[in-house]
Amino acid sequence: MATFESAKSASKSLSLSPKSGGKAITHYLPFLDWLVHYRREDLVGDLLGGVIVAIMLVPQGMAYAMLAGLPPQVGLYASIVPLIIYGLLGTSRTLAVGPVAIVSLLVASGVAPLADAGSAEYLQLALTLAFLVAIIQFIMGVVRAGFLVNFLSHPVVAGFTSAAAIVIGFSQLKHLIGVNIPRTHYFYEQVLYAVEHILESNVYTLIIGLGSIAILLYFQYGFAKHLKKTGLSESIIAPVSKSGPLVVVLLGTILVVATNLYDWASVKIVGEVPAGLPPITLPVFDVNVWQLLLPTALAISFVGFMESISVAKSLASKRRQKVDADQELVALGAANFGTTFSGGYPVTGGFSRSVVNFTAGANTGLASIITAVLVAVTVIFLTPLFYYLPNAVLAAIIMVAVFGLIDVKTFKHVWKYNKADAASMIVTFLAVLAVGVETGILVGVAAALALYVWRTSRPHMAEVGRIASTETYRNVERHEVETWPQTVAIRVDESLYFANTKYLEDVVLQMVADKPELKYLVLIGIAVNDIDASALETLKSLNQELRDAGVELHLAGFKGPITDRLKAIGFIDHIGPGRVHLSTHDAMKALGCA
Amino acid sequence: MATFESAKSASKSLSLSPKSGGKAITHYLPFLDWLVHYRREDLVGDLLGGVIVAIMLVPQGMAYAMLAGLPPQVGLYASIVPLIIYGLLGTSRTLAVGPVAIVSLLVASGVAPLADAGSAEYLQLALTLAFLVAIIQFIMGVVRAGFLVNFLSHPVVAGFTSAAAIVIGFSQLKHLIGVNIPRTHYFYEQVLYAVEHILESNVYTLIIGLGSIAILLYFQYGFAKHLKKTGLSESIIAPVSKSGPLVVVLLGTILVVATNLYDWASVKIVGEVPAGLPPITLPVFDVNVWQLLLPTALAISFVGFMESISVAKSLASKRRQKVDADQELVALGAANFGTTFSGGYPVTGGFSRSVVNFTAGANTGLASIITAVLVAVTVIFLTPLFYYLPNAVLAAIIMVAVFGLIDVKTFKHVWKYNKADAASMIVTFLAVLAVGVETGILVGVAAALALYVWRTSRPHMAEVGRIASTETYRNVERHEVETWPQTVAIRVDESLYFANTKYLEDVVLQMVADKPELKYLVLIGIAVNDIDASALETLKSLNQELRDAGVELHLAGFKGPITDRLKAIGFIDHIGPGRVHLSTHDAMKALGCA
Question: What is the pTM of this model?
Answer without folding.
Answer: 0.74
